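Morning F.,

Quick status update on the modeling queue. The single chain you submitted on Monday has been processed. Sequence for confirmation:
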Amino acid sequence: MAKSIRAGVALASVLAFAPMCAPANAGGVSVTNSSDVAALVNALLAGGTGGVHVTGYSLLNQSASTGETSTGLYTTNGPNNYNLPGSGIVLSTGNAADDGSGPYVPGHFPDTSYGLPAEPAQMGLLQPLSPGTSRFFDATQLTITFDVAADTTSVNFGVVFASAEYPKYVGSYNDVFGLYLNGVNIAFAGGKPVNINNPFMVNTGYNDYNGSPRGADGSQYQETPLLGLLVGPSGNPFMNFGGAVVAGSKGNTLTFIIADAEDSAWDTAVYISGLGNAPPPGTVVPEPASMTLLGLGLAALALFSRRRAPK
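Structure tokens below.
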């Protein structure tokens, strides 16, 4: 089982989170950096409904000598405004540990830049998620190979997508997340790819847009300083993404990829959990899961990551 880490020189904002715009709950989300691929895969399976047997995995993520890493493990302590369950993984374009619960301090965002462009092989995965974008940076990519049980005809997981890019950089820095099942992206909300421009993104507390007040249309969801949040058509940020597989099939692949668009500044993150053969409890389906399994036996995809610099 291969693991690759692509290191860069990270530039990171040091954020002092003052007690303002704090989450309206007594729980919270904690994130610990980790590049241990086995631990990430085990956390991804935790809380799932079974039927999936992982046979291989690889990771290409970003890291720096100062401790920043673009992958991590999350845990929850009671209720949280993202509706996340007990535990799972975080893939980030910055430093994953910055993506836990905390308030937004005006003018300061999770912002770690590794400054590394996406590899040519990754461009084929990223460009369909943001047509017209020609450059991607700080990508993190996790691929797993798996077999399914004789009674398993779909795979499912819970996902929360959040970003510091929204709402200020809608239409320009369109950071993306893709979830490829056997080569086909199955991550959609309202029929559109998961990115900053998705119409179901909301602002959970950013009120100093270009120095002027701006209303927060999703303040009830504020949980982390990543103030842009995808809530899907149902209004629940914890969404189920799933796709069809052939019962009893072997050698299936899942590729999770997230990246900055056009530059490496301002972090975007995705929280993933509950990989199994049925939707995780508490999730909603943002898009009918009618994707069919295509192209069994695809070659394993390369993976990687990085992030930050002021805009």
